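haha ok so turns out i had the wrong file open the whole time. this is the CORRECT one, sorry everyone. sequence first:
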Amino acid sequence: GGIHHITENIHIVEIVDPETNMPVPDGREGKIILTNIDRYLMPIIRYEIGDLGRIITEKCACGRTLKLMELLGRADEVLIIGGANISQDSIAKAISKVDGLSFHFKMTAKLSEMHDLLVVEVEALEKISEEKGRELESKLYASLLSEKPEFESFLKTQSIAKPIVKVLNPGELPRNPRTGKVKHMSDERKN
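then structure:
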């Protein structure tokens, strides 16, 4: 992550929509495409680096006049739900604000009546009752909306389905049998 200067005399940095590959306006998030105009023998032309980022229009406090770019994370660690980029970090941040939840979670993109649907499943730290599960789900849903306020407007315009939040008992999420790790993200819209 972080904010970086773009050396425009040797690099062309494009930010493009992850789905259409069309350029997005400065300030909007998208995939980073890089062209190095200083290499002659093996030029790098429109190379997709696999990261998400955005061009920042404010001037840097250091006084340099070079353009600024913010790195936002790996493109393969993000789901696009109704036009919003939902990263594993943003889900983890929403989970961290709710006591009693572990960081064993899975976020899944699905289609529900032709609308994007985000399903977040997270394990509790200890075995819970159904009532406690509903209470934690309500808190996590509120935390998710707080972390991603654009969901509110998407819900009002009915451009996405209402996100589903499920709190499970420890060990209920499927794990890789070899490593024991939870796969944090899946996109079932492509199947």
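The mean pLDDT is 88.
again sry for the mixup
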